[in-house]
């Protein structure tokens, strides 16, 4: 019983690790962004992983004597999700922030994603609406607003940011679609194959931007620090991060998974403190406490369901 209950926490631990990696990655992107063009950076980020991912996928299938095959409809879906991730989410976020600010990006571009996901999940009958969810999601969103509020670049809505804010909400919609689409695939195919196909599709979609904007002189001008940020983002934040993310997603489902996105402002603030020497304000402390409380409420439903499942299993064993 204790062993099964312990294993039930692994996906949650996985998501915490993912958002630690991604929080550090925001600091890495900020440092690398001083030298790299964003589209070139992301294009190289996806392309540099392809050989590693496919070699690993080949040996994964070979060691298990599996055939590398996928239904054509699912192949189109995973390739579409790869393009959606690389262009529709990453590139759209970069473009939207030209008309808005990073605080609005944290709230509308990421913070709205669990809200939209739960709406989709309710329509599909994948989640049951409880008082914990009704309280937890608004509390998490309000806490993120507290974290990013304050100062001239804090969260605000107005005519000066309207265009960017609409694009940021669209980015949250795409993020919800990505989670739901990937949730369908991770229970049917091994993760190495899905990650390899997704990253290959993303790399091909960004290849034209790399060819148009990067040449030998451009790449030679990048410092060693710039290359280190690319390596970290490619190997740890993307390859490792998305692998753990999608494995945990297969265990928790799209809605419970999306709720962990609220950890990002916290891990990003901590990473900024250590790597960029940024200060942590009282707003961020209070907002972080609110986020953690909200996540406890949202995840509590699953913990109760697992507990009931274990108790029923033990009861059935005793009868047998």
UniProtKB/TrEMBL annotation:
It holds the Pfam family EamA. It is a multi-pass membrane protein. It is found in: Cell membrane. Keywords: Cell membrane, Membrane, Transmembrane, Transmembrane helix. It comes from the Bacteria. The chain crosses the membrane at residues 12-31, 43-63, 75-97, 103-124, 131-150, 162-181, 193-211, 217-247, 259-276, 282-299. Residues 13-148, 163-298 form the EamA domain. Belongs to the EamA transporter family. This is Membrane protein. It comes from Paenibacillus marchantiophytorum.
